[in-house]
């Protein structure tokens, strides 16, 4: 692999790319000119507006081909690597089967007075979120969704009764830092009740910062936009780590 | 014309089994009411608005009343008797005033007897009748407007989704979509609304990946579509969702605001939302009775089975669900022409002969339900983000739709699983549909699958598997089958799930004028 690369159309180094976009202007020669200018500013030079057509009276759609002047320096490519790989549901299932030889038990709910189950349901319900199925869909996961307004003692009791490997709590309401205080209360209760044998604790909510795990006393914090697949992949990763330490 | 040569005896067997499987569930549905059915009844009787001073935010007045009645005298006699008794006793002008007084702690509800009972029955009946009259008027109005502006020129009708979260933006998108050729606009609901045990109030502008279903949002969108219908010269239909914990209430609001189609599946909430099975079947029956009254076409959700299970292996579960949905719908008074039974193009494109298998499944649905406006749903599971490939797949989906005579075509987006569609994505998707309709819209005329070919054989096989599964469900009992994970892999016991505490066994003297009037229509 060479250090410097450019897009490949049909000849090495030609820099050819194809793009399409819509501008909020009526169809016509002036619109094509506008598209040409945008493409130039995007670094496409020469740029060819190969197609345009009106969408209603006020919009025009364009397809543009052209050569970009940019060069990629592979030495500067830094990829932020998640410390665990994203797995497909079947990979999650097979890995768990191998690592645990039983189903992984997940207990989840909204604690405190929070009645917003949107987050926990998006992660747990089979319906899922963003085109991904929720954790219920995974054959090797046993999901117990306690729903809304679960008290901390109730959560600890359920986690113990179900022999939970992981506890997922969701917090949407943030008035007077309720989400932080509730989560700290929860993690303290688990430490007190179960010590080192406590399940993996995961907190999620739109106002959490992933860097807050230590402060909250949990193992992992997920923020806005998290999908079920990310959570499942994390659980697999954490289980492998745990087993690794034990072994 | 029949192309599959299905054995009428097998078809009759399948329908008979579906009826037997459904029977015990219908009995349970008749013997229970739910907080949502009672709320829907009060909404028909005219209650509106919300308590904006409550510390939990806006709580609809109807929820305040129902919760208090339940606390003070239970709901097993229905809400209307204590509610209308109190209305009279305190000489209040409307149910909303009653709600305000309830919130102020001024009302002590009780089950009326003797003369008070007679008076409460009468007052409740006339209030509910008024609500149903509005629903009836809307139905007549729809017929009038369809006669005036016309139905779409072609079948399938073109169904497009908008989902901005802001009703005002939805209006812009919906009107543009109608101008570009959409015959039906569906407004997707905000994520998680199905699990709210109340219907939000007013016009809303902040949904998550969709817009809240509220009475005011319904009104705004229907008015906007009336405007654009006039402009484009065809009646543009409006779709929303009567599903989740407020299914009966949303059905009522749809009837009151002249919505035209509602997503309404007999088992979706149980399987995919973990809503209590009994709650779902009770709410389901009432909501379908309302839809029947309102002339609303229901859309069932069989596509969901294929997104969780393999579309070839699970093909027969779609047929089983369609037969159950058909039976539950007929039982609730919905005629065939209001049954938008669902199915979807979800076979892995890498499977050999995948298109032929899709044709077999689609034709099977068409021939099993010849008079139902079938809803044909596009690929989602195998849309990968490669928008070019996705566009081709959507083209084949459109072709299968016209070739097998589907009635409602949900337009596939090449951005499925990538982003919410751009303006241009929707435009390209509609071009795709138009091209296929124009190039091959009448191809069904020339389409004769070979009598012993793959398509015919496959359709017979799927129907056979459906009959086998229905037999197992009848033996097992539908509720047990659901509990055991027969559908969509999910195990849903009858005593578990969300909203279970909102189910109430009816007392001998239970009274609900809405149920009585809706029952009488069937």
Automatic annotation (TrEMBL), chain A:
A molecular function GO annotation: protein dimerization activity
Source superkingdom: Bacteria
Q: Please give the InterPro entries that the UniProt record associates with this protein.
A: Cobalamin-bd (IPR006158), Cobalamin-bd_sf (IPR036724), KamE_N (IPR028991), KamE_N_sf (IPR036843)
In this entry, which stretches build a coiled coil? none
Please list the residue ranges annotated as the B12-binding domain. Answer: 103-246
Q: Fetch the Gene3D superfamilies from UniProt.
A: Cobalamin-binding domain (3.40.50.280), D-lysine 5,6-aminomutase beta subunit KamE, N-terminal domain (3.30.30.60)
Protein name per Swiss-Prot or TrEMBL:
Lysine 2,3-aminomutase
* Originating species: Lentzea aerocolonigenes
UniProtKB/TrEMBL annotation, chain B:
Q: Which InterPro entries match?
A: Cbl-dep_enz_cat, Lys-AminoMut_A, Lys-AminoMut_asu_sf
Q: Give the domain of life.
A: Bacteria
One function term, GO molecular function aspect: catalytic activity
Start and end residues of each D-Lysine 5,6-aminomutase alpha subunit domain: 4-516
Q: What is this protein called?
A: Lysine 2,3-aminomutase
């Amino acid at each position: 692999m060479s250090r410097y690369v450019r897009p490949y159309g049909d000849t090495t180094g030609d820099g050819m790319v194809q793009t399409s976009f819509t501008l909020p202007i009526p169809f016509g020669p002036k619109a094509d000119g506008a598209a040409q200018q945008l493409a130039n500013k995007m670094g496409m030079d020469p740029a060819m507006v190969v197609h345009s057509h009106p969408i209603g009276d006020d919009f025009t759609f364009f397809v543009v081909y052209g050569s970009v002047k940019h060069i990629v320096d592979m030495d500067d490519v830094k990829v932020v690597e998640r410390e665990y790989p994203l797995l497909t549901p079947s990979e999650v299932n097979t890995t768990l089967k191998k690592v645990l030889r039983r189903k992984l038990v997940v207990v989840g709910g909204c604690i405190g007075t929070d009645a917003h189950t949107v987050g926990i349901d998006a992660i747990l319900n089979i319906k899922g979120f963003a085109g991904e199925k929720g954790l219920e869909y995974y054959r090797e996961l046993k999901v117990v969704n306690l729903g809304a307004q679960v008290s901390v003692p109730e959560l600890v009791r359920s986690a113990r009764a179900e022999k939970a490997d992981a506890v997922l709590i969701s917090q949407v309401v943030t008035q007077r830092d309720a989400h932080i205080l509730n989560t700290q209360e929860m993690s303290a209760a688990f430490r007190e009740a179960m010590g080192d044998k406590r399940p993996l604790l995961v907190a999620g909510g739109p106002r959490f910062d992933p860097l807050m795990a230590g402060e909250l006393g949990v193992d992992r914090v997920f923020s806005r936009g998290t999908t079920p697949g990310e959570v499942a992949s994390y659980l697999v990763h954490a289980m492998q780590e745990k087993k690794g330490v034990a072994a | 014309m029949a192309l599959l040569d299905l054995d009428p005896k097998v078809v009759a067997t399948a329908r008979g089994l579906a009826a037997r499987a459904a029977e015990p569930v219908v009995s349970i549905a008749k013997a229970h009411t739910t907080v949502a059915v009672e709320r829907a009844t009060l909404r028909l009787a005219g209650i509106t608005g919300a308590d904006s001073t409550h510390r939990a935010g806006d709580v609809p007045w109807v929820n305040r009343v129902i919760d208090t009645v339940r606390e003070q005298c239970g709901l097993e006699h229905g809400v209307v008797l204590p509610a209308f008794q109190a209305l009279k006793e305190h000489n209040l002008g409307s149910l909303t005033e009653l709600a305000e007084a309830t919130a102020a702690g001024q009302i002590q509800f009780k089950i009326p007897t003797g003369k008070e009972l007679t008076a409460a029955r009468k007052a409740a009946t006339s209030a509910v009748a008024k609500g149903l009259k509005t629903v009836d008027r809307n139905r007549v109005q729809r017929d009038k407007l369809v006669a005036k502006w016309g139905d779409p020129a072609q079948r399938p009708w073109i169904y497009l989704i908008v989902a901005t979260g802001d009703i005002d933006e939805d209006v812009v998108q919906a009107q543009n979509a109608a101008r570009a050729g959409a015959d039906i606009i569906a407004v997707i609901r905000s994520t998680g609304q199905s699990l709210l045990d109340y219907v939000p109030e007013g016009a809303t502008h902040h949904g998550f990946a969709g817009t809240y279903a509220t009475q005011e949002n319904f009104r705004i969108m229907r008015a906007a579509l009336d405007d654009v219908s006039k402009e484009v010269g065809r009646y543009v239909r409006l779709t929303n969702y009567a599903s989740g914990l407020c299914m009966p209430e949303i059905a009522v609001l749809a009837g009151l605001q002249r919505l035209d189609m509602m997503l309404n599946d007999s088992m979706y909430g149980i399987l995919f939302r973990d809503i209590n099975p009994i709650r779902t079947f009770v709410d389901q029956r009432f909501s379908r009775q309302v839809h029947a009254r309102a002339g609303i076409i229901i859309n069932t959700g069989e596509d969901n089975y294929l997104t969780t299970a393999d579309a070839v292996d699970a093909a027969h579960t779609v047929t089983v669900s369609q037969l159950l949905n058909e039976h539950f719908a007929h039982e609730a008074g919905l005629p065939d022409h209001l049954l938008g039974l669902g199915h979807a193009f979800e076979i892995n494109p890498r499977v050999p002969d995948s298109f032929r298998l899709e044709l077999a499944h689609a034709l099977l649905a068409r021939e099993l339900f010849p008079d139902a406006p079938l809803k044909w749903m596009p690929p989602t599971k195998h849309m990968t983000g490669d928008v070019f490939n996705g566009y081709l797949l959507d083209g084949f989906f459109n072709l299968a739709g016209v070739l097998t005579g589907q009635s409602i075509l949900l337009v596939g987006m090449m951005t499925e699983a990538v982003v919410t569609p751009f303006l241009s994505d929707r435009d390209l998707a509609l071009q795709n549909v138009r091209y296929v309709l124009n190039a091959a819209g009448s191809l069904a005329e020339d389409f004769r699958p070979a009598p012993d070919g793959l398509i015919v054989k496959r359709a017979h096989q799927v129907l056979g598997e459906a009959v086998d599964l229905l037999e197992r469900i009848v033996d097992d009992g539908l509720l047990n089958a659901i509990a055991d994970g027969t559908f969509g892999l999910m195990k849903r016991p009858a005593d578990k799930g969300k909203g279970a505490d909102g189910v109430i066994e009816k007392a001998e003297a239970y009274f609900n004028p809405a149920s009585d009037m809706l029952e009488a229509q069937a």
